[in-house]
Every structure is written in structure tokens, then in C-alpha cells.
Amino acid sequence: MALSWNEIKDRAIRFSKEWQDTEREEADAKPFLVEFFNIFGISSKRVSTFEHKVKKLSQADGYIDLLWKGVILVEMKSRGKNLDKAYQQAINYFPGLKEYDLPKYILVSDFERFRLYDLEEGTHQEFLLKDLYQNVKLFGFILGYQTKSYKSEDPVNILAAERMGKLHDRLKEIGYEGHELEVYLVRILFCLFAEDTSIFEKRLFQDYIERKTNEDGSDLAAHLAQLFHILNTPQQKRLKNIDEHLNQFPYVNGKLFAEYLPPASFDSKMRELLLHCCALDWSKISPAIFGSLFQSVMNPIERRNLGAHYTSEKNILKLIKPLFLDELWREFESIKTNRNKLTEFHKKLSTLKFLDPACGCGNFLVITYRELRLLEIEILRALNKSGQGWLNVSDIIWLDVDMVYGIEYEEFPARIAEVAMWLIDHQMNMQISVEFGQYFARLPLKKSANITHGNALRLDWESIVPKNQLTYILGNPPFVGKSNQNAVQKADMDKVFIKVDGAGVLDYVTAWYIKAARYIQDTTIKAAFVSTNSIVQGEQVGILWNELFSKYKVKIHFAHRTFNWKNEARGNAAVHVVIIGFANFDINEKYIYEYENIKAEPHELKAKNINPYLVEGKDLVILGRTIPLNNVPKMIYGSKPVDDGNFFFSDDEKELFIQKEPNAIKYIKPVLSSHQFLNGQNRWCLWLENITPDELKKMPFVLKRLENIKNFRALSTKESVKKQAATPMLFSEIRQPKSSYIIIPRHSSESRKYIPFGFFEPEIIVSDSCTALPNAALFHFGILTSEMHNVWIRHICGRIKSDFRYSNVLVYNNFPWPESPNEKQIKAIETAAQKVLDARKAFPDSSLADLYDSLTMPPILVKAHQELDKAVDLCYRPQAFVSEAKRMEFLFELYEKYTAGLFAKEKPKTKKKESAQAIE
To answer: Where does the record place the MmeI-like helicase spacer domain (predicted)?
Structure first.
């Protein structure tokens, strides 16, 4: 049992008085150091070697005054000697040490002065012997009494994954694999953490391997099996004659070491690998990355990208702070001077319960628990203002790991989550020990986190934790889009979304929203999930949120708008996500966290109500419509070829074809796809709508292409396409405008502030990757090209990855146009719209993709768009819009006004395929 700081300080004072007159290195160094370690209750016999012989770089023999392998090297000098030279002498010993024996600290002293070097941090502290009692906490590393700052990108994490990974690979090579291998490595990882965080005595595990096992590794597996048995055996039940070193290991319990494992097998290289793992300071690895570390160990590909499964603490805090943490801290600040209320608050804190129904390796639960324990420390500080402390600090630590619950689909992430919770609990107990001067550890383990291995979408959550006991639901459910769902996941979705029209388009994460919404009915439970931003855009909004609002009466309490959910891994792809906090009841103060861009920091905005587009406004959803809200031209889908490429030509292909088939020239027309339109590229197609049979007979190369199309369509699994094999000269679906039209690319980059639209004549064929607006005027072009419409797109449009997927059914037909623009306003918009077109013409060699790139957009075009935006805004209202959010609030209000009573006339579309004049 480690000593309390109070006792250590008392021992330090006695030590200083006893040795205050000591001067000579030769006579007094060894007894001085023996008594120095005794200050901390550490026997120098176990941890250190005096006069340790090494070969220096010069090949001369050197003798280290004291070496505690892997921990500290001490060099003593007589009183008054130069400590700089003593430090250099200590450094000169390093070439003679094995890598895993290299110390992390160097202490040099002349009996009167102490200088402690932290080699990993590159810092040092100096003080006098008489002040040792004031500086004993510098030696917290001896006992694991240290407060660590965790950095997920810290090199120790990479080294840990690599070294454990090599051990994993070697064990797997010899045939030790599967369940047994995973459990075996979890146990070893626990032991590595344990000896660096004072669960075990410092270096106890490493010393056991070094001293008790053969260098060839032949008996290492047997010793580990014996150790695992001891860790699962209470002291009173252990054999009386077991090895003394082995008996120093504590009883751990927690069932971590309970399962019988078949013995593994080691060789000298594997033993060396394990010792190299021991040499790392595992206390520097946060339990929040424990699961990520384990997964990277088990998977060589992920090992090269440590953190692929690790969610940064910064991102986790974005969820837990508005969900509960900020509120708890505000409450604490308001009552911290009232002892009675503080005690009640402490009791309340201890009764909170948290569920992560997709917990993985437990990152969210670990950070949640850590933050609650930090708040508990602040409560205890406030209660202990007198400084008298407590007789037994364990009596006033009320929070424990059984306050968290988790559900995890895979077995071993679930077990890792349990271990990670024990580790963070122990580290917080060490912080308590530092704070209040009493060593506090929960060994043997009596409680554990309630982690269930199972399918959260099939389990009854009340069987995990009754909802009348739960306080919060939180987490980061899987981000699986509809096209990537496997058969089991699709079955899960069907089970959750029974009789919900259109649910087949929903992402997998939405099922957790529905499960949570059902579970929290008639409770005060608050929930928050991280989700892909697709659930607040496009067609998913109407399907999911209509269900949540109408059936489950959900209210959004806070939301983070789209930002990068970037892990701390090198090269790890970022996902565009939102965070949504919700409950079955309403609150007065709601918050939206807005980002200037997806990589920026959030700004907090108060809101009266948050709608599912994460904008202040009423709880409405935008559903598909077949006709526009306003009296504007109808938008149509471009023509669809279904031809296996036989209708189309590049510039070179067209020239070659005309040389072979000169009669075809009048039937070859320019065609526009989204890609060609945006990138200024030419493409051509055979357009044979009005060709006669005798003309076709004269063009054998055209006939060959038509034969290819006929055969291609005949093999289709769709009956409608098979029928079109009878008319191979025609596009499968023809919707070519008969007059000039505006072209709208269906897919466009989200990085553009404005999606480029353009005017074209009917001689230019528009393909099905675009939409078209026939009979449109400059006024329509101006409105659609403006910031007003582009903001609507950004919020209402569906997405493919992060790019916009424009839809007339959802976006255009629901867009609220200006109510009653007068001739002056229409003229102003037309004039400004023409300036935009003229500005484009000033750069004939630049594509629209280049012109509308945020970094290369010419100033003249920027200015033209700004003038157009101003003209369009004035068509809506005289006041300027101060932000994108305010624009959307205004547009939603206008939408509500336009739609009042309209839905009774036309049922909005949610699932069925649109007609030829519509786009899904």
C-alpha cells in the first residue's frame, strides 16, 4: 500500500534533519540513497542496483551510483562539487545500457543540493535538502502519484502500438490466435498500465519477467499463466510458499483474469519484445485511447494509422458539455459556498447514470466519467476549505464506474471498454490521493462498468438499465449509409422502422435516434448523438424527423452544425458530422453551435427553437413536392441515354466518326453533363429523334452502334428498359427542352459558395446528370444563382459524401420565391444577373469550376455576385441578412406562410419514384 503524501512529507523532514551534515560521496552515498527511497516506502533492494557496472562509449568501465532500470539513475557527488559535471557523467553511462533499461529521470546531488532531470519532458528542477519536503511531489513517478497530460498523438502511443503489435504478430504466427490471443493481450496491456499507474508497485511486472524468466523465453508463458492466476486470487487464498516476488502482486478481481487460457509459447525475441513494451511509460497513454491502441495492435493496417478508431477528447467534449457537463458546472458554481447544498449536489452527482448504446471501446464513457470525477474533486475541495481533510478519503468518494452503461456489437471492444473504465477510475483515484494526501485505490475491484455485448438495435434497452434510473444517453453510433449496409444492418433497419414510408434511404445511425426516442418516452432523460450530416439534409430529414416529431414528440435542445469529425490519426479521413441533443420535453434555453467553416471553432448561439435543419425555427420538415410552391417554370430532368456509351463521342472520336460516316454530321449534337458543363469540356451525342429509316440505312456505322444499344437494353433486368430495345435510335427517356433553358448540375462541390447555372439553346442536349428549367428568364436565373437560393440548397439539398445533390422535388419545388416583386426589383435582378454572365465571359479560357473555386474566383465575378445578392435580398425584404442562419430562418417563415393549407391539396412525396418531369 503506497504511503500518503502527508506521511511522505513527514519522512522527508526527518530525512533532511538526519543527513544535513553529510559530505562524502565514498562513505555516505549508499546509506543516503537507501534512506532516501525509504521516504517513499520503497525498498532500494528491490528496485535498484548500487555501483552498477557499464561500458561507456570509450569502452572504459563505469560505475553508476544507483540505477533503477527504466526509471531513474542517481549520481552522487561530495558536498560542493559541480552538478553539471555529475549530470554529464550520468549521460555518459547511457551507451552501456539496454534500451528498455534507460532511465526516464536523472537525479544528481551533492547531499546539500538536489537536481532532478525529467528526460522525456526536457526539464529539470533544483532545490536544497532542507526543502525536500516541499518538493517530494516531484518524485511522484516513484509511486505513480502523477497527474499526466495526455496527447493522443504522443510518440509513446505509436511506439506502444508498434511494440505490442509485433508481439501480437509473433503469437499469431505460432498459432496462438482468436479469442485467446485477444484476452491474452488485454491482460498484458493491463499489467503494463498497472505498473506505471501504481496499481502494481513501480516496475513490478517488468522486474518479474527480467528476474524470474529465462533469457530464451522458454518459461515465460508458464510464469505469465502463474501471474494471471495470482492476480485472480485473494491474498488469503494464495499458497503459503509461493514466490515472494509473485506474492507482491495485488488481487485484481473484476473477472479480467478469471477465464482459463491455454498456455502460449515464447522465445528470446518475444521476451525481448515484451521487455521493450515494459520500457514505455504507459501512464502517459490516456484510457480514452486504450481501445484504439488495442484495435491497432490487433490489426496491422490500422497499426500504421493509430487513432483510426480514436475519437479526440475535444470532439467528445463537444457532445458531453452541452448535454450535461456545462449545466452541472453552472450548478456547482452557484452553490459552492453552501455546504449543505454542496453535499446534496454531490449525492445527485453520484446517482447519475449514462448509457452509450454503441460504445465501442468506451471512449465516450471514459471521458464522461473522468469529467464527473474532476467535478467531484472540486466539490470535495469546496467542502474541505478548512484543510482538515478526512480520516478516510474513501468515505467521501461516491462516484464509481458502475454509473455507466454501454452496448457494443463486438465482444472484445466491450471487454476493452470495461478495462478502460477501471484504468480511468484508478487514475482519478490517484489524483484524489495527490489532492488530499491519502493513498486511495479500489483494489480488489468490486464494481465494473455495465457493458453489454449485443446488438443495440435488437436489445430492449430497459433490460440493460431501467429508464426510470437512467439520466443521459450519448454516443457515436455507426455512420453507415444506405448503400453500404450489409444484410444484418438492413434487417436491423427494417425491425426499427416498421411501417415507416421511405425508410430504405436512411443512414444506419438513424435507427439509434428512433430507439432512443422510444426509450425516453415520458421521462426526463436527455440524449445526444454524433451523426453524419446527411440526417439534417435532403430526403432523410422528412422521413426521420417527421417520425420523431409526430410519433415521439422529440424536441431538439442543442445542436452542433456541420463540422469535421476528425480523429487524431495521421491520414485519417475526416467525416462531416453534426451533434444533436434531444429529449421528450421542451426547455427554454436552447443552443446552436455554428461553424464559419467545417474546420473552424464553434460559436454558441441561443435559440428559441431548433428545427431538424439545425436552424432556429418551428419543427417543420421539407418533403418532396411535384409542383413548385410559387408560379415559376417547372424544372425537368435531363434526357437519359441507357446506351452503354454508344451515343457519345469526345472531340477526337467525333471527327473520326464523321470521316467514316459523313451523313451523320447533322445528327451529332453537343451534349451537356454536369461534369462537362462545370469543367468546360466538349462532348457530343447522336440525337436521332427525327431520323427516317431510309437515312439510317445509309449509315452502317450508326447502325452498328444502334445494334450495340439494342443488345445492351435487351439484357437489362428492368422490363421498361427491355422494351426500349425496340427503339435503339432514341434515348431511353427524352426530356429535351424545346426552347432556351437554364441548366442546373445535379452534383456540385460543397466548397463553392455559388453553384454555377447557365443558359443554353435547345440545340444543346441536356443529359440526365443535369436538370433543366425551360422557359426561364434572367429573373429566374438571378434568383437561382443568388446567395438566397444557395443557402437553401446548402440546408435542404441531399448530399453524396459532402457534395450537393440537387433535386427539383425537394429543393426547387419547395424554394420560397419572393412574394410579389415589383417591376423595379425584377429589373434590378435582371441587370445584376446579366453582369454575372458578362463577368464569366471575360474569362473564356477558364472553366466554371475554376471561376467558382473559392480560391480562384475573379474579383469582378465576386463583385457581380455581391450586387446580384443585394438585389435579390431587397426583393425579399429591405433589411440585410446578417448571417446564413438568419436567411434560413426567414426562408422557413416564408415557406410556412406559402404552405399553409397546401398540403391538404397535395400530399408531399416521400418514397415513390417521380414522374418524367421530376427528380428524386
So the answer is: 179-257
DSSP codes of every residue in 13-56:
HHHHHHTTT---HHHHHHHHHHHHHHTTT--HHHH-EEEEEEE-
Question: 192-201, 206-215, 565-574: which range is least confident on average?
Answer: 565-574
* pLDDT exceeds 60 at position 151: no
Cα separation of 237 and 223, whole Å? 19
pTM: 0.77
Q: Half-sphere exposure (CA, 13 Å, Cβ side) for 129?
A: 20
Parallel, antiparallel or unpaired: strands 526-532 and 472-475? parallel
Do 607 and 591 meet the contact criterion of CB atoms below 8 Å apart?
Answer: yes
Cβ burial, residue 622 (10 Å; 0-12/13-18/19+): buried
- The Cα 553–Cα 551 span in angstroms is 6
Name the grid cell of 540: 432523410
Residue 592, beta-bridge partner list: 559, 605
Residues in contact with 340: Cβ distance below 8 Å, sequence separation at least 6, in sequence order: none
Which residues make beta-bridge pairs with 895?
none
pLDDT digits (tens, 9 = 90+) for 452-493: 999 999 999 999 999 999 999 999 999 888 888 999 999 999
The rounded distance, in Å, linking the Cα atoms of 800 and 906 is: 28
Q: Is 177 helix (H, G, I), strand (E, B) or coil?
A: coil
CA geometry: angle 364, 370, 372, nearest 5 deg: 100
400 DSSP assignment: -
Cβ pair 273, 142 in contact under 8 A: no
As a whole number, mean pLDDT of residues 261-274 equals: 94
The residue type at 551: K
Residue 590 or residue 150, greater confidence = 590
DSSP-based three-state secondary structure for 473 = strand
